Amino acid sequence: MTVLVNLIVALGMLYAVPAGLRLIDPAGLGTAARLWPWAAVPGALAPWLPRGSAATVLAAVYAGAALALLGAAAARLRRHPGGRSGGSRLPGPSEVAVLTALASPSVAGTALVAERAGYRLFGFDLDILALTVPHFHFAGFTAALVAGLVCRSAATGHRARWAAYSVPAGTLLVLAGYFVDDWAELLGAVVLTGGMWTVALVTWRELRPAARDRVTGALLAASAVVLVATMLLALWWAAGEATGIVHPTLTWMAATHGLGNALGFALCSLLAWRRLGDGRAPSPRPSSALA
Fold first, then answer.
1. Angle CA 2–105–125, to nearest 5
2. Which of 8, 37, 148, 287 could form a disulfide with 277 if both were Cys (CB 3.0 to 4.6 A apart)?
3. Which residues form the signal peptide (predicted)?
4. Which structural domain range is residue 156 located in?
C-alpha cells in the first residue's frame, strides 16, 4: 500500500495542484503554479524516505507552500464584496468550492509533516495521517475545484450549485468525523458522495455532449463514470467503519477508491478542463471565470 499511496500523493502534488491553480486563476495564481514544483518535489520525495529529520524537513517545505495557498484563500475571501464592506453577503457556491480547494492542501501538508516526524497528531495513527495526504489532494482540492468549475459552466444551475456546496460540506464533515466518531464520518461520506455523484451527473448530461472533440468528451465521460464506482466504495467503507459490516481494508481502498479517484476522476477531469479552458471544446462559461 505504501508504494501506491506515495505515487498517488506525487500525482496530487506535482500535477493536480499546479494544474488546478491555473484553472482557478491563470493570472493571479500563475506565479504560484510556476513555482509550485520547488515545493512539490520535496513534498513528493518525503514519503519515500525513512521517518526522521530529513523527511520532516522536506515535508515542511511542502507544508509551507500549502499554508501559503491557505493565505491566498483568506485574501481571496477578504476581496469578496462582503469581506470588503464588512457586510453579510456570502460567497456564491462556485467561490465556496474554490476556497475549499485552496485550503485543502494545508490539511494534507500538516498531516504529512506530522507523519514523517512520527508524531501522532491529535492522537491519530500514522497510517491515517499518511492517507490524509492523498485524501485532501483529491477528495479535497481536486473534487472541490471540479465542483466549482462544473457550477460555473453548467447550463442548468440548481444541481451544480448544490454540488458546489455539498462537496466542500462533505469534505469538512469527513474531517470533523476524524475528531468525533465513525458515524459523523459516515455522514460526511454521504454528503460528499451525493455532491460528487451530482458532479458526475451534470458532467455526463450537460458537459460531455457539448464537447467538440472526442478526446475531451471521453475524458469527461471517464471522470463521471469513475466517480459513481469510487464514491460507492467510499460509502461502503464508511458504513463498515460505523456499523461493523464487512467492508474493504485500507489497502484495498487505496488500490481501488484511491487509484480510481486519482487517475479516473482527478487526472481525467483536469486534462478535460484544461482543454475546455484552451478553447478546444465549448464551455458555456470558460474555466478562467473562477478568477
1. 45
2. 287
3. none
4. 2-290
